[in-house]
Amino acid sequence: MTQELRGMRVAILATDGVERVELDEPRGALQGAGAKTEIVSLHPGEIQARQFDLNAAGTFPVDPPGRRRLRRRLPRPVAARRHHEP
């Protein structure tokens, strides 16, 4: 694989109930291209992956731990921004 993403950090937003294959496949492709990946979520600790939406398929640690740190990294929603009319 090429290393076109070498040195880049990519956040993968996921939560409980994510299909394991839908997390593993893109994450593997990003890592194969040289990126460092972090799984981020709205709650600290771990998220529970699923297989076929029915079976538990393991857990993944969440980085950074907690919504407070994630919230600081996200832009404010457009509706919440103040718009000044002339």
Automatic annotation (TrEMBL):
Residues 67-86 have a biased composition (Basic residues). InterPro entries: Class_I_gatase-like. It comes from the Bacteria. Residues 58-86 are annotated as: Disordered. This is DJ-1/PfpI domain-containing protein.
